[in-house]
Amino acid sequence: MDYTIFAVAIFLIAVLVFGGVFLIRPRRPGVTDEKPTAEVKDEAAATGTAVAEPEEREAAGGVETAEPEAPPAAAPAAPELETPPPSAGRLVRLRARLARSQSVFGQGLLSLLAADKLDDDAWDEIEDTLITADVGVTSAAQIVDNLRTKVKVHGGRTPEEVRDMLRAELIAHIDPDMDRGVRTEPHGDRPAVVMIVGVNGTGKTTTTGKLARVLVGDGRSVVLGAADTFRAAAADQLETWGGRVGAPVIRKDEGADPASVAFDAVARGVDDHVDTVIVDTAGRLHTKTGLMDELGKVKRVVEKKSQVDEVLLVLDATTGQNGMRQARVFAEAVNITGIVLTKLDGTAKGGIIIQVQRELGVPVKLVGLGEGPDDLAPFDPETFVDAILSTD
Q: Which ranges are annotated Basic and acidic residues under compositional bias (predicted)?
């Protein structure tokens, strides 16, 4: 027997037995075949490979999972539009404010007429009071002559009789028969076009915004044209007014051609089938002929798209005779159809209503009686006179 072969066989069997023991030894609790996380990450950093987190490795070997979707971000809420009051009754609601501002004018006349003795000096004082209130020299003389005649005819002068006489005379000179409606109704497929003109400082842009509120309050749709391109703040101001009531504003860069802005505004009004387009023009100095010519150009360019229904001149009631000079120059440059008298609540010079209508033949259509957004009101002669003669 070859003992060498037998010894080799024994050796091989021993190697196989002991090697199997190490290969199939049981795992100790808590020990895995994976490398520690820190070690794996260090190795990944050295080799430039990506390391999956335990959750990702588990998902890779089983059911695929997805991150929960974040809820969509809520859209910002649109600003709530304001609902302005209608134009009807506005002047009546503002009557107390008007009475306070014009009491010096009205009550002064009443006290003079109710005096026991009305001699020439008293009548001269009445006439001076009228002139001081910007009624105008010619109108003041006519009012005094008519009152003197009525006093002689009626004889006795109770407070009620004096008030009735003065009321009738003032209403007659303001002329209640003048057409004071602002033409804002569309015609066919074309919107009504209203141009707002006037010098700087009269409240022109503010009047444009307030007029938009009046029309929206009456159920009209409006587009605003920011044709005052010489003052960027004017367009910004107009956008604030328009944004409150949902009226879009057409504007261009500062220094752009005002006529092109006005034309684009009217074109937008035609495309959107709106009722009224209001164009705010630059505050033109009445002494600058070139600027006045440009105002005429704006009107001509707009009329290529739609007729201009109203050209409203904004006058500051506190400027007195200077306001009259402005009115005359504007009337020569463009066909003024109506007057907007602003700041009437801060002056006792309401007589300018009589003077401007007499000299231009143009009615006062709107009056501004405060700084509030809804303080612009259609003008009514009887309500105005009753307010200034009120004893409440």
A: 31-44
Q: Which residues are part of a known binding site?
A: 198-205, 280-284, 342-345
- Residue of 290, 289, 291, 286 lying closest to 316 (CA atoms): 286
Q: Nearest 5°: phi and psi at 257? A: -70, 120
Crossing angle of helices 289-302 and 321-333, rounded to 10°? 50
190 strand-pairing partners = 187
All domains of the chain in start order, with CATH: 192-336 (3.40.50.300)
Closest listed residue to residue 192, CA positions, set 137, 294, 247, 270? 270
For the entire predicted model, the pTM comes to: 0.77
**What does the alpha-carbon distance between residue 10 and residue 188 come to, in Å, rounded to a whole number?**
118
Neighbouring-strand partners of residue 342: 316
Cβ neighbours of residue 54 closer than 8 Å, sequence gap 6 or more? none
Select the highest-mean-pLDDT range: 99-103, 156-160, 247-251, 323-327: 247-251
Helices of type H across the chain? 3-23, 37-47, 54-61, 90-93, 95-113, 120-132, 137-154, 159-174, 204-217, 232-245, 258-272, 289-302, 321-333, 352-360, 381-388
pLDDT surpasses 70 at 32: no
Cβ count near 388 (within 10 Å)? 26
- What average pLDDT does the segment 348-367 reach? 89
- The answer to which of 230-234, 260-264, 305-309 has the lowest mean pLDDT is 230-234
Binding-site residues for GTP, in ranges, read: 198-205, 280-284, 342-345
Element (H, E) at 203: none
Strand order in the sheet with 376-378: 249-250, 222-227, 276-281, 192-197, 310-316, 338-342, 364-368, 376-378
Tell me: the pLDDT tens digits for 314-329?
998 888 777 788 788 8
Please indicate whether residue 139 or residue 23 has the higher confidence score (pLDDT): 139
Q: How many CB atoms lie within 10 A of CB 275?
A: 18
95-106 mean pLDDT = 76
Asked whether the beta carbons of 90 and 377 are under 8 A apart, the reply is yes
Question: Which residues on adjacent β-strands are paired with residue 281?
Answer: 227
Element (H, E) at 194: strand 192-197
